[in-house]
Design brief:
- The protein has 284 residues and is α+β, with helices and mostly antiparallel strands.
- It has a single domain, classed as Endonuclease/exonuclease/phosphatase (Deoxyribonuclease I, Chain A, 4-Layer Sandwich).
- It has seven helices and 13 strands.
- The chain has a seven-stranded mixed β-sheet.
- Helix 1 crosses helix 2.
- The radius of gyration is 19 Å and the shape is globular.
- 44% of the residues are buried.
Length: 284
């Protein structure tokens, strides 16, 4: 067995996890800190990070409990409801993503239907901000936000949160949560690809880079819309209770290799966490 090369940076783990604001579809909370402890990544991209109007955000709580440094970016204002009194064993009521029994109401960009806005559940829900975060055990040496705008049918703006982490050599990590295909998401992918080339392209070209997040899109079109990036893992991630599609992705480019990757078991969200082990140098 060969001894590790002391001049070669050690492998590191990057994960993406859509936390669904720390609740299930009925508004029942689950233990996000325990979920992130199980994920055990050196760099964790956290989508649907919830920051209540009073108190710490999910990302801040996880960072404090697990020793991460964190960067956060809000994408929408909204309300988070408590547990629904009619909740059953299902993760949520079928086909109720924007109905009165759902838990997350994003109200910053356009009003809800009157039947929802006047419901006691909506009125009693706590206000806050919904967005993305990147948490890192590795030193963060730079941070940048690439705004991707808001599509007409989307309740939230979209953005990419770009950090540089020190693994022994600088690595650019880009965390994002893209809009849905039916809303016109390819336009945002084009903006993201252009922005990466224009704003951090020189750095990405010279150093290893990782792009991770909930893309709300399957792997093959993601690859077509983001030329130059390689998919680090191919596996089903959504919905967590019976996954049939991969919408959560980790992609790499530059001198970085994939040692391995896995989709973890459900931890409370409707998305399963995705974790990959990466090494600077030889790629597969």
């Amino acid at each position: 067995m060969h001894d590790p090369d002391p001049l070669q940076p050690a492998p590191f783990r990057v994960a993406t996890f859509n936390a669904h604001a720390g609740v299930d579809g009925w508004g029942r909370p689950y233990d996000v800190e325990a979920a992130c402890r199980l994920i055990d990544a050196d760099v964790l991209v956290l989508e649907e990070n919830w920051a209540p109007a009073e108190g710490p955000s999910l990302a801040a709580r996880v960072a404090g409990a697990l020793g991460y440094e964190t960067r956060e970016h809000a994408l929408a204002g909204g309300r988070l409801a408590g547990p629904h009194p009619s909740a059953d064993a299902r993760w949520m009521r079928s086909f109720d993503w924007r109905g009165r029994s759902h838990a997350i109401f994003l109200d910053s960009e356009r009003p809800f239907a009157r039947r929802v806005a006047r419901s006691s559940r909506f009125v009693a829900a706590g206000p806050g901000r919904w967005g993305i975060a990147v948490l890192s055990r590795l030193p963060i040496t730079a941070t940048e936000v690439v705004e991707l705008g808001r599509l007409a049918r989307d309740r939230a703006r979209r953005a990419a949160l770009v950090v540089t982490v020190d693994t022994g050599v600088p690595v650019t990590v880009i965390g994002t949560h893209m809009s849905h295909l039916t809303y016109g998401a390819p336009r945002q992918f084009v903006r993201l690809a252009r922005a990466v080339e224009a704003e951090v392209g020189a750095e990405v070209g010279e150093r290893p880079a990782v792009l991770a997040g909930d893309m709300n899109l399957w792997g093959p079109p993601v690859g077509l819309l983001l030329p130059g990036w390689r998919r680090a893992i191919r596996a089903k991630t959504w919905p967590s209770w019976r996954p049939h599609s991969q919408v959560d992705h980790v992609l790499v480019r530059g001198p970085i290799g994939v040692v391995g990757g896995e989709v973890l078991e459900p931890v409370g969200s409707d998305h399963r966490p995705v974790r990959v082990t990466l090494r600077i140098g030889g790629a597969r």
